[in-house]
Here is the input.
Amino acid sequence: MFYSLSAFVSLFAFWLLLSGFFTPFLIAVGAAGSLCVLLFAHRMDVIDHEGHPIHLGWRALFSYWPWLVKEIVLSAWDVSRRIVDPRLPISPTMTRFKPSQNSELGLVIHANSITLTPGTVAVEVAKGEMLVHSLSAEGAAGLAGSEMDRRIAALETPS
Here is the structure.
């Protein structure tokens, strides 16, 4: 019930944000549309703790996301410098390492965070193993036991 309610609130808030009109009729249509989407999602059995990870909550919003945005900016700067400056090495590297995440959701968050960071792409993800392509050897060396790995493992643990 918690996931259904939070999914409805998220869908309706997103609809209101995109609509921008707040007449009673349009608000009712938005609520009905959100409810229909929620019913379809229930029929498809996709409302669960992995499909709608609301349980990560405020920890993810206020601690992980700002840190990830900072890392994306720093990595984009590094990639840009490597492209412009011919003295900086570009040495494409495939690295296999063992992430410390315990759940599939943690592995997905870790793989997507790696892929969002410029210069790295998660190529293969399995329980207890991840294969990542990196633009440089320095980027590949920092994957195992990284700050990202630690922060996502901390997100997984219930508070």
